[in-house]
Design goal:
Elements (H helix, E strand, L loop, with lengths): L1 E7 L18 H17 L5 E4 L3 H14 L5 E2 L8 H9 L7 E6 L3 H10 L13 E6 L12 E7 L2
Parallel strand pairs: 1-4, 2-3, 2-4
Antiparallel strand pairs: 1-5, 5-6
Amino acid sequence: MKTLFVLRHGKAEAHSGGGDFARKLTDRGEADAAKAGKYIAGITSTPPWIVTSDAGRALSTARIVAGVVGVGKVDVDHDIYEASVDDLCHVVQRIPDTEHAAVIVGHNPGLEGLVYFLVDDPTTVVGLGTANVAQVELAVDRWDDVASGCGRVVSTYSP
């Protein structure tokens, strides 16, 4: 059994001189990212693996969460930015099998699509606003076995 925390980045500034990719977190976004980290830390018994988009707002969110949960290293993966559900699934499948829990930090609509893909249950409704978390329990022993319908949402969090 593996646990995946699907975390949308915190609230970001509306515009940036560097374009969408460079958008930074607002003060609220930083505070909400810390709250999301506290929520995750309260659930996991060991610090989770964290993989994030390299976009500014997602990377900042991941670093804040890492500090709260006690993770020293954040894995940065460009494939998460503007990713399809298939791309995100492949990112999850590359998580080391030694990790029992992981956090993926990124963007919508991809992250919501990933949750629906993993759960494959039309009655499940999960909205991922900024800094929202969906905890998905995966009925797999190895991350590379993650596939459609292998999971269920066990909790959600909105700061």
